Amino acid sequence: MQHFYDAQIRRYILQFIRMMSNFSYVTGKNSKGASETLQVPVKYGDMSRQVAQIIRKGSENTLIPAPQISCYITDLRYDRDRMYNPYHVDKKHIREREFDAGTGEYTGAPGQSHTIERIMPTPFELTFNADIFTTNTDQKLQILEQILVLFNPALELQTTDNFLDWTSLSFVELVNINFTSRAIPQGIADEIDVATLTFRTPIFISPPAKLKKLGVIEKIVMSIFDEEAGKVDVDGILGESLLSKQFVTPGQYALLLLGNRMTLLGESSDNDATHANNRNNRAFESQSQFGNKIHWRKLEALYSKTIQNGLSKINLQQSATNINGDDIIVNVSGTVAIDPQDEKTLLFTVDIDTTPTNTMEAVDAIINPLTFNPDGVANGTRYLLTEAIGSASDDSTENTGPSAWGNLIASANDIIEKVDGVFVVDFNADFDDGSTQLLRGNLDSSSLGDSTFNQVHYVTNMTTGIQYKWQPTVGIWFKSFEGFYEPGTWSIEF
C-alpha cells in the first residue's frame, strides 16, 4: 500500500485542545488589594512520572507549574454500532470557478470539472482525558465551573470546513469526572491536585478520495449519420464501414514498442509508401521510418498530469484475424515506468490477462535445434525452432544436429512436437496451408486450401510466459504486443 497520512486523528486532538483553551482564573488580592485574571495554559500529553520529572528539571525541589490543563487520548476503539457498508462509494460532480493566474483571483466564469469518489469511512470512538492541575481548591472550582457549563451533555465538533468532507461534524460528550487525585486522608507529599474529565468522541477515519479531472478527448468518431437512410449508421460505428471515421490521439502521437521499451513518436518527415509498407511488415530500417522521437513530458503537459511508475497504464489496440478469417480488435494493456537510463523511453510491463487468446497449444521452449539436445524428453513436448534442421532429398544443404532429432526435417519458425517417440512438424512456417494440421488430425480435409490458414497465430512460451504472434505476411514470430501503433490505436491512464 502507498503511504497515506491525512493527520485526521491529529485534527481531532487539535480541536479538543482548542475546546479546553481560553479558560481563566482569578488570583487572590495582591499587596495593592487588586485581583488578577490569568489564562490557564493547555498542553498535550499525560502527566507521567517521567514527564513530571522533566518539568521539574530533575529536581524534587521544583514544583510543577499550576494551574494548567493536560489533554491526551486514553482509548481508541472500533465502533461497530456505527458501521456502514464498507464497499459503498459516493460520487460527487463539481465544477470549479475559473482561476485567473494574473490577478491571483477566481472569476465568475466556470472552470474545470471534477468527479470525486468518496469511499465509506471507518467508524471509531475516541476517548480524551483533560487533567486539570491546580494548587488549591478555589482554582479548581473556578476552572471546572467554566468547563462544565459548556457540556450539557455535549459540544459540537467540526474538524474541517470542506463541504465535500462527510466526516467533518462530530461531538464531544462529557462522560465522567474524577474530582481529585488525592487520597483520604489527604497528605502533604504532593502540592498538586488533579481533577480529571473524561470525554467521548465518535469519529470516522476516511481513506483517500479519488479525484478525477475531465481530460483530453482521445478518440473522435465522425460522420455517424447516414444521409441516404436518414438515420445514424450504428453498424458503421461498431464496424469499419464509415469512410470518414477517424481515431485521434492527443498530439497525433504514435507509439513504437520493441521488447519492453516504448517510445513516443511524432510525425515523420520521411513518411512515404515504402516506409509505411516496412512498418506493416516489420522491416525495420531506422527511427525515421516511424517518426521523430518525442519526450513523454509533452504528453504529460497535455493532460496536466505525471506518469506514475508502476501505476500508469497504456492500452494498445491491434487488428488481428481469427480462425474463421474475421478481422477482430485485440486490446492489450500494461503498466509503464520511466526508464532510469533514458527519460524518453518507457518500460512496458504487459498485463498477461489482456493478451490475445492462443490459437495454438503452448510450446515448452524456443530452441536452436542445431545446439539443443532433446534426448529423453517426454511425448507431447513442443518446441519453436530458431534454425532449420535436416534436409529434403532434393536439397544439397544439410543442417545436422544432435542424433536425438532422428530424421526430423523442419525450418526456422516451425513448431515441432514429439509424438510416439518421434518429432514431427505441427506448424510449418514455410507451408502454412493446413496440410500439416490435417496430418496431425487437427483439421478436416474440407478446410484445405482455405485462406484461413494464412492468418495470424498466437502461442505462448511456457518457459518464459511470453506470448508470440505469427505474422504470415512477414513469416516471423515476435512478441504479440510488439510493433508500431498509429495515432488513435493507443491510450494512456495516468
Q: Can you describe this structure in just a few lines?
A:
The chain has 494 residues and is mainly beta. Helix content is 12%, strand content 36%.
Number of domains: 3
- Gap from first CA to last CA: 18 Å
- Principal-axis shape equals elongated
- The fraction of residues in strands falls at 35-45%
Walkthrough of the structure:
There is one protein chain. It is elongated and about 120 Å long. The protein is mainly beta. Residues 433-452 have low confidence and may be disordered. The two termini are 18 Å apart. It has 3 domains: 8-210, STM4215-like (2-Layer Sandwich); 230-355 and 487-493, no CATH class; 365-455, no CATH class. The longest helix has 12 residues, at 8-19. Strands 14, 15, 16, 17, 18, 19, 27 and 28 form an 8-stranded antiparallel β-sheet that branches. Strands 3-4-7-10-9-8 form a 6-stranded mixed β-sheet. The protein has 7 helices and 28 strands.
What secondary-structure arrangement, pairings included, does this model have?
Layout (H helix, E strand, L loop, with lengths): L7 H12 L4 E3 L10 E3 L2 E3 L4 H7 L12 E11 L10 E12 L4 E15 L2 E13 L2 H12 L5 E5 L10 E10 L14 E13 L4 E4 L11 E2 L4 E2 L1 H5 L15 E5 L2 E5 L7 H8 L12 E2 L1 H8 L9 E9 L5 E13 L2 E9 L14 E3 L14 E4 L29 E5 L2 E6 L7 H5 L17 E4 L6 E5 L4 E4 L3 E3 L4 E4 L1
Parallel strand pairs: 3-4, 20-21
Antiparallel strand pairs: 1-2, 4-7, 5-6, 6-11, 7-10, 8-9, 9-10, 12-13, 14-15, 14-27, 15-16, 15-19, 17-18, 17-28, 18-19, 21-22, 22-23, 24-25, 25-26
